[in-house]
UniProtKB/TrEMBL annotation:
<feature type="domain" description="Major facilitator superfamily (MFS) profile">
    <location>
        <begin position="248"/>
        <end position="456"/>
    </location>
</feature>
<dbReference type="GO" id="GO:0016020">
    <property type="term" value="C:membrane"/>
</dbReference>
<dbReference type="Pfam" id="PF07690">
    <property type="entry name" value="MFS_1"/>
</dbReference>
<dbReference type="InterPro" id="IPR020846">
    <property type="entry name" value="MFS_dom"/>
</dbReference>
<keyword id="KW-0812">Transmembrane</keyword>
<protein>
    <submittedName>
        <fullName>Maltose/moltooligosaccharide transporter</fullName>
    </submittedName>
</protein>
<keyword id="KW-0472">Membrane</keyword>
<dbReference type="InterPro" id="IPR036259">
    <property type="entry name" value="MFS_trans_sf"/>
</dbReference>
<dbReference type="InterPro" id="IPR011701">
    <property type="entry name" value="MFS"/>
</dbReference>
<dbReference type="GO" id="GO:0022857">
    <property type="term" value="F:transmembrane transporter activity"/>
</dbReference>
<keyword id="KW-1133">Transmembrane helix</keyword>
<keyword id="KW-0813">Transport</keyword>
């Protein structure tokens, strides 16, 4: 049974409902670029960093399918998805404020444990706020406007990541904010960046909440007659949906595993790798100006790959049209893998900007192409839960890396974090080969490219 066609929305309404993605990515970028640095400041050893980072995939694996399932079935005065935006925004803003100030609570627990707890809270809260955003565009827009809606998300994701990643560097280098502090204390440029991140995240998500409208259950059923009203089942229903996942989701498993194993290695180990291998910082030094320079540089580099990914997302459909989605993804992943490996051969920090181009290409494709392949096979009334379930293929490789990555760096690489980046590059190239064997029921090429936020 075919439902009514959804009315077209104005450009302003499309941008309004995605504005929260800017704040989410702003906060996520601050976490990615600075969490390892903060935890090292609190006393974490390099080989233990990946264990602390397990918070992200573990919470994502648990939270996203549950939030997706219940947001498909929620309706109150705020709507279907917006209640989750609000709860996630408040909790994430609180975690952004507390994470760089964990040393102030040292009389309760060691700062590294408090920092790990705040990292876990931040990851869980970001997942609560983020997951329903993925479904909101599909809920509200007719088919012919979805590419415009997801393009807006792509731009906001990139812009938020660029500003969030580069803010500590900008505050230190251009605003005169201190980039060093006493041992065990996070520098002011990082603390103030997290404060700004909390304000930006809360403000942008509130903007989306109060300027967006959601269709009522009655209207939604008119647009999607296949939608059911079943509100029972809970976890049992999620597990049933998991067992009945489309074949394309399973076929993408290896590609996603290798891609996200590589990304996790990059997020966790780039700061110690750049500090020791390129800046020649001595192991255990987390309070010198040189270590601060390395940490600020990594944040700036992460902003570069985010900017590249936003631009590359506009080029990717053209590449897919000329080749195929699988070929476009393989090209992008190969560029990312070679770029990660190239870190080993670079000694001049000023040259590190060049690998960020390839990494940005890979990130831009990872945010879109797997979801393009998936988008044609998931039912509209289960968009939220299947987006959450697909997150399993993102979180599982990060959990594996979190458990074994630090052990590999310590015992196989003799605590030289640079080789974790080389290993990540190899995994990304394996993903490039694996995607060529995915059976993609490709439609009109790149029109199906659907960017999304791919973190745990």
């Amino acid at each position: 049974m075919k439902g009514m066609v959804k009315p077209r929305l104005s450009a302003a309404r499309i941008w309004n409902m995605s504005m929260g993605f800017f704040g989410i990515q702003f906060g996520f970028a601050l976490q990615n670029g600075n969490a390892s640095r903060i935890l090292q400041t609190y006393g974490a050893e390099v080989e233990h960093l990946s264990l602390f980072w397990l918070a992200a995939p573990l919470t994502g694996m648990i939270v996203q399918p549950i939030i997706g399932h219940y947001s498909d079935r929620t309706w109150n005065r705020l709507g279907r998805r917006r209640p989750y935006f609000l709860v996630g925004a408040i909790a994430t803003a609180l975690a952004l404020i507390l994470l760089p100030n964990s040393s102030l609570l040292a009389y309760v627990l060691p700062p590294v444990l408090i920092g790990a707890g705040m990292l876990t809270l931040m990851d869980a809260s970001i997942n609560v706020a983020m997951e329903p955003f993925r479904a909101l565009v599909a809920d509200n827009l007719p088919d012919e406007q979805r590419s415009q809606g997801f393009s807006a998300q792509t731009f906001l994701i990139g812009a938020g990541a660029v500003l969030g990643s580069s803010l500590p560097y900008l505050l230190a280098e251009y605003a005169g904010v201190s980039k060093t502090a006493a041992p065990g204390v996070v520098p002011d440029n990082v603390i103030y960046s997290f404060y700004v991140g909390a304000v930006v995240l809360l403000a942008t998500i509130l903007w989306s909440i109060f300027t967006s409208k959601e269709y009522s259950p009655e209207e939604f059923k008119q647009f999607n007659p296949e939608h059911t009203d079943a509100h029972t089942g809970g976890i049992r229903t999620i597990l049933k949906d998991f067992s009945n996942m489309p074949a394309a989701m399973k076929q993408l498993g290896l590609v996603q595993f290798c891609s996200w194993f590589a990304l996790f290695s990059m997020w966790v180990f780039t700061t110690p790798a750049v500090a020791t291998h390129i800046y020649k910082v001595q192991p255990g030094d987390t309070s010198s100006a040189l270590f601060a320079d390395a940490g600020n540089k990594v944040g700036f580099l992460f902003s570069i790959y985010s900017a590249v990914s936003a631009v590359y997302a506009l080029i990717l459909p053209f590449i897919a049209r000329k080749t195929s989605r699988k070929a476009a993804h393989a090209i992008s992943l190969t560029a990312g893998g070679l770029s990660l490996i190239s870190f080993y051969f670079i000694q001049d920090p000023n040259l590190l900007i060049w690998p960020m181009i390839g990494i940005g290409m890979a990130w831009g494709s990872i945010l879109s192409t797997p979801y393009a392949i998936l988008s044609g096979v998931i039912p509209a009334h289960k968009t939220g839960v299947y987006m959450g379930i697909f997150n399993f293929f993102i979180t599982f490789p990060q959990i594996v890396n979190g458990i074994f990555g630090g052990l590999i760096v310590k015992h196989l690489f003799d605590n030289e974090a640079i080789f974790a980046l080389v290993l990540g590059g190899a995994f990304m190239i394996i993903a490039a080969v694996a995607v060529l064997y995915v059976k993609d029921k490709e439609k009109t090429a790149a029109e199906m490219l659907v960017p999304t936020y791919g973190v745990a």
